[in-house]
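INTERNAL AUDIT FORM
Audit reference: QA-55
Scope: verify that the stored structure record matches its stored sequence.
Auditor: D.O.
Record contents follow.
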Amino acid sequence: MTTVLVLSGGLSHEREVSVRSGRRLGEALRSKGFQVHHADLDRGLLPLIDSLRPDLVWPTLHGSPGENGSLRDVLDHLRVPYVGPCGPGARLAWDKPVAKALVARAGVATPAHVAVAHSTFRQLGAGSVLERITADLGLPLAVKPARGGSALGLHLATTSLELGAALVDAYAYDDLALVEHVVTGTEVSVTVLEEADGARRALAPVEICPVDGIFDYDHMYTAGETEYFAPARLAADALEAAREAALTAHEVLDHRHLSRTDLIVDEAGVPWFLECSVSPGLTETSQVPIALAGTGLRPADVYAEIAERVVAQHDA
């Protein structure tokens, strides 16, 4: 029986979501006959790995503990196979300004943006910084921590005053904030799966429609706050363009096994890259399970296939 150690929790603002993702994953793998153990990211983890010697580690840690690459570097030193990108690949996607630069260089559109450090915001004077950003990028603007997930610290600013407040809130999560022009269109997420033969498959884009406001943390993880359509209600050429953009992001950011890319598709059908998740959520309201179901796939079957393949590749 294949033993899988699911990692969830961690000391981050996304701990609760991580625990929910880990629980759902564990239930799915058990239903397929795997022996599943759960662990948190604490002092007991390394001794547990030494004693358990799992066939596979599957991190469902959100936020910096599981997505900044450091845990994955440690797992590499332990020679334990795991799901998701290696350490360097994780760092590429974790840092949103870096990810945007790499994906844009590969030919995918990304909204005009600027990364503003907290120290720069203070030292240059908040008023001057806000004035220059709004003059250059225009309004409205989306503000979020440059490194983080689950839309924590995400705000929409329609005035300079709102921009200042949004930056202050973003700095509560990270000392670097990303400010980007808001592209009008349809918000979608695209899940990419790597299959047994190494081919990458982009699933049908999932359309995201919050009942009001923007797709923030509450809308993301509270049932009934967002309506999803899988596939998205877009023209066939726009759906294909979104898939191609996600495949490009998956490759450029050195993802493995499973990824989720967030995009805005404008009225002309052009996909605009927002970000790519290192450890996409697997909760009951997360887009990966919704994308799988919308494509006619059972999440348990997909997770089992990924686990079996990663173990087999490690043992080969």
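Auditor finding: record pair retrieved intact. The longest strand covers residues 186-194.
Action required: none
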